[in-house]
Amino acid sequence: MPKKIMEMKYVGKKTTREAKKEMGGADNRKCAIRRRAKVDAEESNNGLYSWHLHVCSENNFPTAAGLASSAAGYACLVYTLAKLYGVKGDISSIARQGSGSACRSVLGGFVRWHKGCDPTGLDSIAQQIAIKERNFEMFAELTMKDSNQFHAMCLDTYPPAMYMNDMSHSIVHLIHLLNSEKGRTKVAYTFDAGSNACLYLLESDVSAVLSAINHVFPPANDSVEYLKGLPVNIDPLDKKVAESLAMKPHEPGSLKFIIHTQLGEGPQVVQDLDQHLLTTAGDPKFLNPRHDN
């Protein structure tokens, strides 16, 4: 599934007592799904509730890198169990108990996580939102400002929490130079709890922006999978644009790789057997990670 990123960051949490009472661990999430299943499903379940389940999961983007891999994992887990047990309606409140951001990942597109007022957390759910006005420049500016504010607040704690590094700040600098060179906000950055940048831009600008990134952060000579994800044709950077950026290229390989993706749907049931992670015998097809983490 496409990675999830927060445009508007959230801060704070419930009291420790409330949080412990609400979450209760992995067994609590299993029981929550089964309780919902008994209400939603038909009387006959063919012994489904006594099954022992074998779960196999895999990330196709970096783990522990501030890219919400835990949200993707828990969203898919809860979605799969809900499908298995015939649970109907909202499942975001269950997914949230494993990873807060997972409540947004069970839905596609742009999603809002409602804080809720109930101490039990039952009304702390996620809902997909509709975009009334497609104003990319406003969206981009708000996204960057919110990211900056979040990391400024992290630095203002004692001791400070430092997520961004020198490479992160170099990417920020490049994005502002690109927007200034074009005279409009054509690309936005945001950083969650990590040093990896997430860039937002329109499809029509992807090739030009990647050309600038490749110019400032050239790939290593042996970098076979430098650009992953959706295929895209990258034209050489215009000489005048390169001169106007006035940014000295970094050492080749300074960026490990780039993932080109797009706004996507939430979890999906895989119909193609070739995409399954398990063999027909129920064993994992890939015992070792296939992707760099």
Automatic annotation (TrEMBL):
SUPFAM superfamilies from the UniProt entry: GHMP Kinase, C-terminal domain, Ribosomal protein S5 domain 2-like
Enzyme class: lyase
Keywords, ordered alphabetically: ATP-binding, Lipid biosynthesis, Lipid metabolism, Lyase, Nucleotide-binding, Steroid biosynthesis, Steroid metabolism, Sterol biosynthesis, Sterol metabolism
Segments forming domain Diphosphomevalonate decarboxylase-like N-terminal: 39-126
Superkingdom of origin: Eukaryota
Record field: transmembrane: none
Pfam families, per the entry: MDD_C, MVD-like_N
Physiological role: Catalyzes the ATP dependent decarboxylation of (R)-5-diphosphomevalonate to form isopentenyl diphosphate (IPP). Functions in the mevalonate (MVA) pathway leading to isopentenyl diphosphate (IPP), a key precursor for the biosynthesis of isoprenoids and sterol synthesis.
Name of the featured protein: Diphosphomevalonate decarboxylase
